[in-house]
TrEMBL record:
<dbReference type="Pfam" id="PF02810">
    <property type="entry name" value="SEC-C"/>
</dbReference>
<dbReference type="InterPro" id="IPR048469">
    <property type="entry name" value="YchJ-like_M"/>
</dbReference>
<feature type="domain" description="YchJ-like middle NTF2-like">
    <location>
        <begin position="42"/>
        <end position="138"/>
    </location>
</feature>
<dbReference type="InterPro" id="IPR004027">
    <property type="entry name" value="SEC_C_motif"/>
</dbReference>
<dbReference type="Pfam" id="PF17775">
    <property type="entry name" value="YchJ_M-like"/>
</dbReference>
<dbReference type="InterPro" id="IPR032710">
    <property type="entry name" value="NTF2-like_dom_sf"/>
</dbReference>
<protein>
    <submittedName>
        <fullName>YchJ family protein</fullName>
    </submittedName>
</protein>
Length: 170
């Protein structure tokens, strides 16, 4: 029996770290949510999984996890158009608070667009609809925008590595 060919693929996917910076394996973190096998248990989990969907270009998941009211004004084409040129590099979740009737999550996400680095610093609002956490909207905080980061500066993701050896590698 030839089994050698299958092993590396499954080993790789079992150990790939989740894109949401949880330090957990992707298969044990956001993948089950993206595949619809598990529901997000709270707003932060949904936010993290939506970030992964952006990284992976899973726009159907992005669309499905918007609130019903927002979804009416959106389409896959619109989401793709906005996001196709964007390369997501890192996520840092800063806070998660329950509010009435939903929750807020504050995070920083870092991305490259047209050769330039950017920071998105957002306070997102979430609600529960029919037992599912959904994204409503986000407020962009003041320090959003272009990042000036040299290749020898420390990386924004908090790894203590130089940017060029970390998120700036590709
Ligand atoms: Zn994750
Ligand atoms: Zn980094």
């Amino acid at each position: 029996m030839v089994m050698g060919l299958l092993l590396p693929i499954s080993t790789f996917s079992m150990t790939t770290l989740c894109y949401c910076d949880s330090k957990l394996a992707f298969v044990r973190c956001c993948e089950p949510l993206l595949k619809g096998k598990l529901l997000a248990q709270n707003a932060e989990a949904l936010m993290r999984s939506r970030y992964c969907a952006y990284v992976l270009g899973d726009f159907q998941y992005i669309l499905d996890t918007y609130s019903q009211a927002k979804r009416r004004d959106l389409s896959l084409a619109v989401l793709q158009q906005d996001a196709n040129e964007t390369q997501w590099l890192a996520l840092q979740v800063e806070s998660h608070q329950l509010t009435e009737p939903g929750a807020t999550v504050q995070f920083s996400a870092f991305y490259r667009y047209d050769g330039q680095l950017y920071k998105l610093h957002e306070l997102s609002r979430f609600i529960i609809e029919e037992g599912h956490w959904r994204y409503v909207d986000g407020q962009m905080l003041d320090d959003c925008g272009k990042l000036r980061l040299g290749r020898n500066d420390s990386c924004f993701c908090g790894s203590n590595k130089k940017f060029k050896q970390c998120c700036g590698k590709n």
